[in-house]
Amino acid sequence: MDQRFSTYFRLILAVFFAILLTNCSGGDNDSSGSGGGETNQNEFKTSRFAIVTLSAKTNAGADATYNWTVENVSSEKYSLTNTTSKEALFAAAAEGTYQFNVVITDKGVTQTEKVTITVTAETKELKSYISKVFEFKPAPGQFINDLPAANDGDTEERILTRANSYLAKKSGDLISLGAFGGYVVFGFDHSIVNIKGIRDFRVLGNAFWAQANPNPDAGMRGGSSEAGVIMVAYDKNKNGLPDDEWYEIEGAGHKMEKTIHNYEITYHRPDPNKIPVPGGGTGTVLFPDMEYIYWKDNQGKDGYLAQNNAYNHSLDYWPKWLKNQATITFKGTRLPDNAVDESGNGSYFVQYAFLYGYADNAPNNDDDSAIDIDWATDSSGKKIQLPAIDFVKVYNGLNQQAGWLGETSTEIMGATDLHLSGEIIPTR
Fold first, then answer.
1. Higher pLDDT residue, 3 or 75?
2. What is the C-alpha to C-alpha distance for residues 412 and 53, in angstroms, rounded to an integer?
3. What is the pLDDT of residues 44-55, one digit of tens each?
4. Do 222 and 351 contact (CB within 8 A), yes or no?
5. I want to staple 307 with a disulfide (CB 3.0 to 4.6 A). Which of 193, 289, 313, 314 is the partner?
6. What gap in Å lies between CA 117 and CA 94, rounded to an integer?
7. CA 260, CA 256: separation in Å to the nearest integer?
8. Is the dihedral of CA 186, 191, 197, 202 positive or negative?
9. How many whole angstroms separate alpha carbon 240 and alpha carbon 229?
């Protein structure tokens, strides 16, 4: 009898403790409430200049909706995107604590989850400039085998290494992208944060303003402005390579009537045995061959890159490392021609700058050489919100020749993270 009593007593105790544990459960991860207004806690830790995915812990159905809002932040130097998804993307350029609320509505039941991110200093010193060049694919042009230097027998890999040595340093050296479409792809050792209201990075070129424009009625700033279109990407798959979706920065020229989107051009390698077609010259600049490199585009137009002897550059415009390649094709946005012969006799050309949004379009110390990541658009031209970027692609957006100056060719000499370098430039 005593033994049965002891067994029943132990059974009653077990049931009691089971009920007690059930009533005490359902802490931070409890998402089964039938009313609404429950607040769960979720915490993340990250360092500056890194993209982190914020995910709601609450279990919800596939049709649930999400709305992320700001609760309290210690600095405005941050970015929060994907604010209507279960997973938001966050990045910050300043240490501190950032608190957000995500409201989850699932089958009429609403819950709120508080998300706290603690941002600390990075463990290694970051560079404000380019860390690596991933691709260098210039179009033919007068400086292609000079900037960077190319020799007979050089391979594509060797030229890429040379381009990297030119750009991946604090004070870079000029490289030329050649005629329309020629491009370079580079990255940083951190993510450049897309901070609201200010510009985020700058691509450095050799643009300058004209000191003596003979046109007194010129309403635009001009000089040597050889606009390079800029594309950006973030390392979504986190493999350290620029193989993610690209987004194009929409500068002022993108909205002009004569801009051609989805432009395509093919250059044909010149026959070394062809008979040159000389074209006289302007001053000391001569044109040994006016029909040097033939090109054809997808607009039904064709023409030639003329060969000139200006600036003591190489007379070989075709990339030496592609001497066995018969054609090169490039695609992109073609901006309106911006070179004007203001002298009327071919001696003085002015290349007028687009208002904002390009590389090698305004001098490096000009605010309008700086770029806001919020200007990014997707492949259909729709504005896109990016938390930050890791990679940049620059390609020449102009297909024009400016007399004795030759073809317009974008040159760049580096890039800078404005947040890491401490520059604050309001956006447009």
1. 75
2. 33
3. 999 999 999 999
4. yes
5. 289
6. 12
7. 9
8. negative
9. 23
